[in-house]
Amino acid sequence: MCTKMLHTLVSVIALSVTQVEKIDALEVYRIGGKDEPRPSQIGVNFHQLLWSDFIDKRSLDEEAFSEGILRPIRLNPAKNIALTSTNRGGGPYIRVSGVASYSITDQSKNMIDSDYETFWEWVEGIQSNFTGQRFLQSRRITMDLGGLFFVNRVRLVTAESGLYPDRLDISADLNVQKKDNVSGYGAARIGGQLVYELPENVRDTIDVKFEPELARSVGLLLYRTSPKPLKVGEIEIYGTGYTNQASYVSQYIDIGEPAVWGNIRWRGRKDPQARIWIQSRTGNDLDPNVYWRFTGRGNETTPFDNAGQPLDASDYSLLKPGEAGEITYDTENWSFWSSPYEFADSNGTPIASPGPNSVIQLRADFLPVDDEGGELGFIEFTATKPPLAGNILGEIYPDEVPLGEISQFSYVIQPTIREQHSGFDQIEIATPFGVVGVDSVKATGLEDFTVKIEPDSTRFSIGIIPPRSMEDSGGVIEVFFRAPVLSYGTTFQGWVRDSSRPLELPQSINPGNAADEVLSEALTVRTSLSQRLLIDMLVEPKVVTPNGDGVNEKVDFSFKLLQITSRVSLSLKIFDLSGEKRRVIRKNNQYSGFLHFSWDGRDNSGNLVPPGLYVYQVSVEAENGEDLLTGTIGVAY
Question: Structure pTM?
Answer without folding.
Answer: 0.69
